[in-house]
Design a protein that fits this description.
The complex is a heterodimer of chains A (112) and B (117).
Chain A (H helix, E strand, L loop, with lengths): L2 E4 L4 E4 L4 E3 L1 E4 L5 E7 L6 E6 L5 E4 L2 E4 L9 E3 L8 E8 L6 E3 L3 E6 L1
Parallel strand pairs in A: 2-12
Antiparallel strand pairs in A: 1-4, 3-9, 5-6, 5-10, 7-8, 8-9, 10-11, 10-12
Chain B lengths: L3 E4 L2 E4 L5 E7 L6 E7 L5 E8 L5 E2 L8 E7 L2 E6 L8 E8 L8 E3 L3 E5 L1
Parallel strand pairs in B: 2-11
Antiparallel strand pairs in B: 1-3, 3-8, 4-5, 4-9, 5-6, 7-8, 9-10, 9-11
The chains are: A mainly beta (112), B mainly beta (117).
């Protein structure tokens, strides 16, 4: 079956530091890959997505590239801000009703 | 935008009672809604897929008689936890998919914290 593994957190960074959150997956077929963000007290929001191999998703300075050869979709940002503090979830979507399989989530805290 | 609400945001109940959680898509119609369960410091686990006007499809290991799902309209799905026990305490999250395609984005509600005493 499908599965997603994220690097364990929590991750604590200083403002303007470089961020990487690793995500690898196991899936049959050709899934879409997603990063969701959950700010305190809010629901999950789609941050970015990639639907096929070598696609790069990007949004709000975050980027992730769909690497089929390494089955990875690592999230990166060149310079984090305090407002980026949140929980980040990597997910993959199959074609069956669009069901999502989530990683365990990574808590990011950015200090001024 | 695409907003999904859940009600209540938190609920405390006694063991043996039933609790209903509502999930509403406020500004769009959702043919399909999903119910997830999240344990502390763990991932979201899909419980069931709910399609408007038909029976929900439950994931393996989820008791359909315990977690009753009704999707009676294009903007409302409900999850009823029947005869709740302390092990049912968890964070329940719903999502609603805009449009009919399986590739359309899901929009998530803020979640409902259930505590069973």
């Amino acid at each position: 079956g499908n599965s997603v593994t994220q690097m364990e957190g929590p991750v604590t960074l200083s403002e303007e530091a470089f961020l990487t959150i690793n995500c690898t997956y196991t899936a049959t077929g050709y899934p879409s890959l997603f990063w969701y963000v959950q700010y305190p007290g809010e629901g999950l929001q789609l941050l970015l997505k990639a639907t096929k191999a070598d696609d790069k998703g990007s949004n709000k300075g975050f980027e992730a590239t769909y690497r089929k050869e390494t089955t990875s979709f690592h999230l990166e940002k060149g310079s984090v801000q305090v407002s980026d503090s949140a929980v980040y979830f990597c997910a993959l979507g199959g074609t069956s009703y669009g069901k999502l399989t989530f990683g365990q989530g990574t808590i990011l805290t950015v200090h001024p | 935008g695409a907003v999904v609400s859940q009600h209540p945001s938190w609920v405390i109940c006694k063991s043996g009672t039933s609790v209903k959680i509502e999930c509403r898509s406020l500004d769009f119609q959702a043919t399909t809604m999903f119910w997830y369960r999240q344990f502390p410091k763990q991932s979201l686990m899909l419980m069931a897929t709910s399609n408007e006007g038909s029976k929900a499809t439950y994931e393996q290991g989820v008791e359909k008689d315990k977690f009753l799902i009704n999707h009676a309209s294009l903007t409302l799905s409900t999850l009823t936890v029947t005869s709740a026990h302390p092990e049912d305490s968890s964070f329940y999250i719903c999502s609603a998919r805009k449009g009919g395609s399986a590739y359309n984005e899901q929009f998530f509600g803020p979640g409902t914290r259930l505590t069973v005493l």
